[in-house]
Amino acid sequence: MTGNVLLYTGSVIITLWGIAHVVPTKAVVDGFGSISRDNKRIITMEWVAEGLALCFIGSLVLLVTVSGGAQNPVSIVVYRISAVMLAVMAGLTLLTGARTSIAPIKICPIVKTAVAILFLLGSVF
After folding, report:
1. What local confidence, expressed as pLDDT, does residue 125 receive?
2. pTM of whole model > 0.85?
3. Where are the domains of the chain?
């Protein structure tokens, strides 16, 4: 039961974080000022892709937990590889985006790492 709570909590947090990543895309792109149309498209693509990836990870963990149960061997693999992916994304953000002055990007590695920990703990309990 504790594992399920950890998994559901992590799923909701990272899915909402993904949505919060996608919603301000236009404002983020506009924040780069006068850049080429191609650069705007690339930034838009990358910004939306990360948000969708976060939503996918959260939705995957949620749906696997609901449909297969938290102690199913396949579910455990999904939780752990999702945690690894979030840790990798957190590391990338820590080395790149978190070095900016933008507060939400500075806390992004913390959110991703926290959810990765929730998924790992959820796979154990």
Report:
1. 87
2. yes
3. 2-124
